[in-house]
Amino acid sequence: MPELPETETIARDLDAAIRGAVIDGVTVSRADVLREVTPDELKRRTEGVAIAGVARRAKLVVLALATGDRIVVQPRFTGALLLDAGMLPEHERRYSTLAFHLLDGRVVHYRDVRRLGTVSVMSPDRWLEYSGGLGSEPLDPEFTPDRLTKAARASRQAIKKLLMDQRVLVGVGNIYANESLWRAGIDPSRPAKTLLDRELAALHRAIVEVLTASIRARGTSFRDYRDASGARGAFASSLAVYGRGGLPCPRCSARLIATHAVDGRQTVFCARCQY
Fold first, then answer.
1. Is 36 a catalytic residue?
2. How many domains does the structure of the chain reveal?
């Protein structure tokens, strides 16, 4: 599932490539990915409209339109926004659920193999309401160790579950929660409120570091994630624990443990150096 580094990479690529472009037409092949808008309304509100910019919020890619509306894309597990200038491989177009045809001849596809992601069109007021219900952005200066500490002190959840709660902290999913907790040396199952100030400061630093490093590597690709040009991210080779259950811990060489006991998702950690 694309998390913060992956959606940030897509948003940056698209902003550089299509800012100012005009949507000339819309093709909807699979209307079941649409939310809050019908195919006809999607066309009415986007055709003939310029794209003012593309940004990320949480795990969303948000295309701001000159009208003030936002096209809000949540890729979830297999979704991808792909820019096609005529050279996109056919297998990447095969699962296109909808396409924005630009006036200059290029096409932006929303490709989603399992169609678990969504595409919405939101008015400025609706976007403010929706965005306001989301948590802190981990790479914003306002996300400080004190803010993380305040959230932890108020929670009895396992710290890993707290990190993945999008009402508290956005963009961190299973991959980067595992990696951040390993870097900070914290057991993912520990109740958040039991963590000490110094441990939370280390965790804050680990979250920022791992997300920043993954953005530099253009995200993590295992199966489905692709950037806007269809290329894979390179951060998988830098993962310390995620997907490495049973292998040696890179820090202490103990066998990494993989379990689903924390939150139903696979958690990989080192019992020797995470406590």
1. no
2. 2
